[in-house]
Amino acid sequence: MANPQIAALQLQIAALNEQIVALQADDAADDAQIASLQAQVAALQDQVVALTENDESDAAQIAALTAQVAALTAQNDALQQQIENMTQDNLLDLGSMNITITTQGENATEAKFDLPSGVSVTKQFPPSGELTMNLGLGLGLTHVRTQGGGGGGGAPEWVPEGALIHIDLVRAFNAQDAAYVDGTGVVAVDTLLGADVNADAYWGDTSAYSSEDLGATGLIPATFVAFIGAARTLLTTETGVSVVLGLANAGTTGDGELFISSASGNSAMKVTIGGGAPGTASVISDLPGADDFFTGNIGIDPFDTNDTCKVGFTIAQPVSTGAVCANGGVANTDSIDAEDWPGEGEEFVAAAYATAEIALVSVTIYAPVSAAALSPLTTL
């Protein structure tokens, strides 16, 4: 594009030259006037030369900058193409990071990113939503999605299907998410296991939960551990529950006992587990001064040292039935007579687990009661 300043100067020079030519043709013209016009032309020509040189310099700079822009654009295009070609697995491999996605109720899902640096980043977003985060890897991780749905948006994969509450104490030992409540999502273990004075009244000792009592096979509490919060509410409900216990035998003849006790602390329904070859599992009504009481038994084979098993049981009201099964076998089910029901009409107020050498691996609570469902629920 022509420089407008140069064009204007050239017009002035042309006009002055015309005047000079006219004066030179006039014999009466003043030589001094001609010389003055020639000097003006020379000055204008100097300005044209200077402007032309500046234009050439600017053009060179523009050309150099244009080349740089082109090179940078090409690099950017190449990088964008590399990013587009990378799969999600490629992105995850760059940082060797762990991503945990858990439900937090009907309207939110939580994504936890454990980065190689040891830093954890936690973000919440709606079900079926999309989360975009810059993880300090020079790349953006996008399109982290969840599927919406009922029951708090869906349970984590480690929770058995249909469970209202699930506690996995091996996961707790390994510092992983380990407790789940339907409609709430993942919770801390110590919101479901802890201390309860009502349980203490029946057992005659002090209940407590401590992570120091966890081991590779589960929980062996120092005294005994009470169910609290949502777990206690479900276990003491008037309509009854179906429960599956994961157990590991650390001793040849160890024993474990889960009880659901009445308000007075004088009676309870108990599920007892005994180690041995074979082991046993029983549902028993514990009544003060009773000569006869309800009991339902089943064998567990094998359940000797280092063996594991799953024991399922049902305690139901107001139909009043008790059932117990092990490792997916057929449940032993029987009616609990009115005189065998604990507490003489008292409500259940506490639940706990006590043990000698039989570790509590997991607890899964279902409702409503379904004795027929116990066998498939406890299949190893």
Supply the key terms:
single chain; 8 helices; 380 residues; 8-stranded antiparallel sheet; Jelly Rolls; 22 strands; 32% strand; alpha+beta; 3 domains; rod-shaped; 7-stranded antiparallel sheet
Write the layout of secondary structure elements.
Layout: H1 4-25, H2 31-85, H3 88-95, E1 98-103, E2 109-114, E3 120-125, E4 131-134, E5 140-144, H4 150-153, E6 165-168, H5 169-173, E7 179-181, E8 185-187, E9 193-194, H6 197-203, E10 214-215, E11 218-219, E12 224-227, H7 229-235, E13 241-249, E14 255-262, E15 268-274, E16 279-286, E17 295-300, E18 308-316, E19 321-326, E20 332-335, E21 348-356, E22 358-366, H8 374-377
Structure description:
- With 380 residues, the protein is an alpha+beta fold.
- It folds into 3 domains: 4-85; 89-152, no CATH class; 155-377, Jelly Rolls.
- Helices cover 29% and strands 32% of the residues.
- It has 8 helices and 22 strands.
- The protein has helices at residues 4-25, 31-85, 88-95, 150-153, 169-173, 197-203, 229-235, 374-377; strands spanning 98-103, 109-114, 120-125, 131-134, 140-144, 165-168, 179-181, 185-187, 193-194, 214-215, 218-219, 224-227, 241-249, 255-262, 268-274, 279-286, 295-300, 308-316, 321-326, 332-335, 348-356, 358-366.
- The protein has an 8-stranded antiparallel β-sheet with strand order 8-7-6-22-13-18-19-20. Strands 9-12-21-14-15-16-17 form a 7-stranded antiparallel β-sheet.
- Strand 7 (179-181) and strand 8 (185-187) form a beta hairpin.
- Helix 1 (4-25) packs antiparallel against helix 2 (31-85).
